[in-house]
Amino acid sequence: MQQVLSVPSQLGALLKAARKEAGISQVRLAERLGISQSRMSHMELNPGSLNLEQLLAIFGVLGLEMVVGSKRLAPTGSQAPSQEW
Q: What confidence tens digit (pLDDT) does each residue in 58-75 have?
């Protein structure tokens, strides 16, 4: 699985898809992380609630890794608006 994430809302769908692809239920994933199933559900539905440590722990169980790279710039004149934090 390879996925580009551009906005936080994409992360929940990615986690759910990766979990299902790995054949792991929310209950089993939660057990392996030492959290409740309801917390795991909350993380998938509200990925903005995750911190980096939690995200990397989930990735570890699901056999995923995070790769960070530069965005490819759009051709001049069609650049996407910048996003401020």
A: 999 999 998 888 877 767
